[in-house]
Amino acid sequence: SVADLTAFVRSLAGYGFVRSVDGVRAAAPERMRSSLPAIRPDHVRFLLHPVVRWTVLALAVGMVCAGVARPHRVPRPADLLWSDRGSAVVLGQLTLNWVVVVLHELGHLLTARAACVPGLITLSTRLQFLWAQTEVTGCGRGPGPPG
After folding, report:
1. What are the angstrom distances between the C-alpha of 80 and each of 88, 90, 93, 104?
2. Structural element, H or E, at residue 55
3. In terms of Cα–Cα distance, which of 112, 97, 141, 131 is closest to 39?
4. Distance CA 112, CA 119 (A)
5. CA nearest neighbour of 110 among 122, 102, 119
6. Which of 12, 30, 55, 139 would be a feasible disulfide site paired with 17, CB 3.0-4.6 Å?
7. Is pTM, for the whole model, over 0.90?
8. Are strands 20-21 and 24-25 parallel, antiparallel or unpaired?
9. For the segment 97-123, what is each residue's pLDDT rounded down to a tens digit?
């Protein structure tokens, strides 16, 4: 229908994909908010260097080789139960899991920032689960001003 087409064109204009409609210039897309705006691309540009990629790959291969060379050193599920108090184990695991999630999402954000793309870390729920994600919807708009 015409209403659906109009809404579709407005959404395209909102992303900066449409410059004008019937000769009327479309409004400029609003700039996406960004988490940790003080971190500038020049602060984290090193993350896109090939040496970083090869270093991470070497660490992963090294961990696999260490696990194969000394299988008795690989943690077992029973090693997660480091206390007789179940509550302490659950709270410890939840804390450790969220530290890993935050570091993971921060990695997305810093890599996007190194490429001059705005990123926004958000927390939401999906069904009953707490969910963290990094929105980098600014990727489709191309490199923009830092921040």
Report:
1. 11, 10, 8, 21
2. helix 50-69
3. 112
4. 6
5. 119
6. 12
7. no
8. antiparallel
9. 999 999 999 999 999 999 888 889 998
